[in-house]
Amino acid sequence: MLLIESLGPADTPATEKLILDFDARTKSRLRTKLASGEEVGLFLPRGTILRGGDKLQAKDGRIVEVIAAPEALVEARCASAFELARTAYHLGNRHVAVQVGEGALRIQQDHVLEHMLEGLGAELLHIVAAFEPEAGAYAPGHHHSERGATEAKIHVMGGSA
């Protein structure tokens, strides 16, 4: 099994790909497979959140690129900026990971949250896309030089890393 314990240099071309959904990209310890089918064990520093495009350094020297897997999402659009901000507030109040887009918010599909969003007047669209939610505002996390030294990690409620 290929062992990965560290982030790799962002400017080095990858020879392997690791396709993970958002939930898997929040785990510091994970047994999974590369796109080629080879088994891999991730043992990353606690609190590491992987983003699509991140590079990992395998123990054997290979560079592995993280690919954000398409997953079932809900895109919420609102009639006004005020309604969109109100919708974002209510999602944040529930500690939900949210991807902010141009005039829209994306969350992982959840029928309870979808019902709440409809009650707030949001128009919902079910899509399949890579999920790259916003980072938490207060939690420091790993960063890459091209992202800036102050990048925060995503605050994920529940589950084990």
Uncertain runs are 139-153, 155-161
Gyration radius (Cα, Å) is: 17 Å
Q: Which structural class best describes the helix and strand composition?
A: alpha+beta
- The overall number of domains is 2
CATH level 1 class label of the largest domain: Mainly Beta
Give the percentage of residues in beta strands. 25-35%
Extended strand count: 10
CATH topology of the largest domain, which one? Answer: HSP40/DNAj peptide-binding domain
What's the tally of helices?
3
Biggest sheet layout: 6 strands, mixed
State the separation between the terminal residues, measured CA to CA. Answer: 20 Å
Q: CATH superfamily membership of the largest domain, which one?
A: Urease metallochaperone UreE, N-terminal domain
Shape category: elongated
- Helix proportion: 10-25%
Mean pLDDT: 88
Element order: H for helix, E for strand: EEHEEEEEHEEHE
Instruction: Report strand order across the widest sheet.
Output: 2-6-5-1-4-3
Indicate the CATH architecture of the largest domain: Sandwich
Keywords:
161 residues; alpha+beta; HSP40/DNAj peptide-binding domain; Alpha-Beta Plaits; 4-stranded antiparallel beta sheet; 3 helices; 34% strand
Description:
It is a single chain. The chain folds into two domains: 2-68, Urease metallochaperone UreE, N-terminal domain (HSP40/DNAj peptide-binding domain), CATH 2.60.260; 70-130, UreE, C-terminal domain (Alpha-Beta Plaits, 2-Layer Sandwich). Residues 139-153 and 155-161 have low confidence and may be disordered. It is elongated. The two termini are 20 Å apart. With 161 residues, it is α+β, with helices and mostly antiparallel strands. A hairpin with a 4-residue loop joins strand 5 (55-58) and strand 6. The chain contains three helices and ten strands. The chain has helices at residues 22-25, 81-93, 111-119; strands at residues 2-7, 16-20, 29-33, 39-43, 55-58, 63-68, 70-77, 99-101, 104-108, 123-130. Helices cover 16% and strands 34% of the residues. It has a six-stranded mixed sheet with strand order 2-6-5-1-4-3. It has a four-stranded antiparallel sheet with strand order 8-9-7-10. This is Urease accessory protein UreE. Involved in urease metallocenter assembly. Binds nickel. Probably functions as a nickel donor during metallocenter assembly. InterPro entries: UreE, UreE_C_dom, UreE_N, UreE_N_sf.
